UniProtKB/TrEMBL annotation:
Alphabetical UniProt keywords: Membrane, Transmembrane, Transmembrane helix
Transmembrane intervals: 120-138, 150-169, 272-293, 370-402, 422-440
Superkingdom, natural source: Eukaryota
This protein's name: Uncharacterized protein
Length: 491
């Protein structure tokens, strides 16, 4: 075998499906902007709901894709050994093949490709979930009605499930085997190559025989439609066409020169970011428990403005509960005949008995229940305050980190001036114009339209009154049928 003039060379390559245009940089940044403006306009009605609804639909699509990706992982065939010409480490081919394989006579082939949509989906769903926390603390629009509260909770669960799926897929994707491309040493590859679709004739036996036959026959090499032979183009993905697959030739200084090396490089920053996200998830569950459990708290609202405005009332209620319960327990104990409280004639015994009498009301079950409720309210209040501090920090840190990660995935498919990118912005602008017109419909309506609206509203109001009366009657009937209420008139 001629090592100075090898038949072909092998070099490491990164095969990937680039980020879809719907998740490209412009739509993602627009999504972040929608969430930010939603928080800033949380006191409004139509504007807040329009912006948040648009962002939630976009995030919901990403969550659905996360479910599909994690449920249909890419399957890798058993590695197949391909023998290659031996090339020494000090070869001059490094100039044209920066990731050339040297010092060995074989490589293992297992076709596969990275799905870079996983990074964009992770960015979208986790950011959507993190925004749920500050909206709980600041927005009253979402908590005024049970239906809105339910929809907001379902969106939160969707984002949580999508985020978990995206994280699981990210772990699966890190197991993608290293890919290789095979080229003539006289014809260096392009920096980036797109697949034209895989033909079955390019591999009619083992990978080893297919590679050697391709470079031994110039006609067969010309039929592959590319400068280099890329086995990874034989892989597939459930949500992509084979022609969207690309092979990247990374330079020695590029972040993408080795996918596993890049993952190892960011492992420490990933730990810090995910720890921050985990703390936010914990506080989120605290808020959900506070909202849905049948617990009567002294904290009247999770909205920080309401808490600050009613802080004196809440403090007085807590103080009154503690003092009144202690006085009641003390009075009940003084009225009881307890032979165990008989004191001795010694001064030490008198002091011990006096101290025990003062302490006993605080050890009763009733007072301990009140004390536990006060402690729970204190923890809830602490959780709300910490959420105000941690949630914005977690959102900012995660967005910066994940966008830096996505930036290292490679260039965008489309530029901002292309219609696939700015069309989302135009669509949202038209939606906001429509929502603004509908919000002002009563001001621009004619007299006849107002009459019709009043009539429809009156009919709806009468229907709601009948529903409330029927519900009230349904709740009263079981009370009237109880033994203690038989023969007693229900007011």
């Amino acid at each position: 075998m001629n090592t100075s003039n090898p038949l072909f060379v092998a070099q490491e390559a990164l095969c990937f499906y680039p980020i879809s245009t719907i998740y490209d940089s412009c739509p993602r940044y627009l999504y972040y902007a929608l969430l930010f403006v939603s928080i800033c306009t949380r006191w409004t009605g139509w504007l807040f709901l329009t912006l948040l609804s648009t962002a939630s639909v976009y995030a919901g699509t990403a969550a659905i894709e996360a479910f599909i990706l994690v449920s249909s992982p890419q399957k890798f065939a058993k590695p197949s050994t391909v023998t290659i010409p031996y090339i020494s480490d000090n070869t001059s081919l490094h100039n044209d093949f920066p990731q050339i394989v040297t010092g060995t006579t074989s490589v293992d082939i297992s076709p596969g490709a990275l799905e870079l949509d996983g990074d964009a989906v992770l960015a979208i769903v986790v950011t959507g979930y993190l925004v749920f926390l500050p909206l709980q603390c600041y927005s009253r629009v979402l908590t005024q009605e049970r239906a809105r509260n339910l929809l907001f909770g379902l969106w939160n669960l969707l984002m949580l499930a999508g985020g978990i799926s995206a994280l699981i897929y990210s772990k699966q994707r890190s197991k993608t085997p290293l890919q290789y491309m095979f080229c003539y040493p006289e014809i260096p590859p392009l920096d980036q190559t797109s697949s034209d679709g895989w033909q079955s004739s390019w591999r009619n036996s083992t990978w080893n025989e297919s590679v050697w036959n391709t470079f031994s026959d110039i006609n067969q090499w010309g039929s592959i439609g590319d400068i280099c032979f890329n086995p990874c183009f034989n892989s597939s993905q459930i949500l992509r066409q084979s022609t969207s697959l690309q092979a990247w030739v990374a330079s020695a200084d590029d972040e993408l020169d080795h996918p596993h090396r890049f993952i190892d490089k960011i492992i420490y920053s990933k730990r810090y970011i995910y720890s921050l996200v985990g703390i936010s998830v914990l506080f989120n569950f605290v808020h959900l428990i506070f909202r849905w459990l049948p617990y009567k708290s002294h904290i009247s609202s999770k909205n920080i403005n309401v808490i600050w405005r009613e802080r004196k009332i809440m403090y007085d209620n807590i103080k009154t509960d503690l003092i009144d319960t202690f006085s009641t327990c003390k009075a009940e104990l003084e009225n009881e005949k307890d032979t165990c409280t008989t004191t001795t004639t010694t001064s030490t015994g008198e002091k011990s008995s006096s101290f025990w009498k003062r302490l006993r009301p605080a050890l009763t079950r009733r007072y301990m229940n009140v004390l536990i409720h006060v402690l729970a309210d204190s923890l809830i209040l602490l959780g709300i305050l910490l959420s105000m501090i941690i949630s914005p920090l977690a959102i900012i840190a995660f967005v910066i980190w994940i966008e830096w990660w996505i930036h290292n995935d490679g260039p965008s498919q489309e530029h901002p001036q292309q219609v696939g990118q700015w069309s989302y912005l135009v669509g949202i602008a038209l939606l906001m114009v429509s929502a603004a017109i509908l919000a002002l419909k009563h001001r621009i309506a004619s007299d006849s339209e107002l009459e019709n609206e009043i009539s429809r509203t009156s009919e709806t109001l009468a229907k709601l009154i009948r529903m409330r009366e029927a519900r009230t009657q349904t709740e009263i009937e079981p009370l009237a049928s109880t033994p203690e209420n038989e023969g007693r008139a229900i007011p």
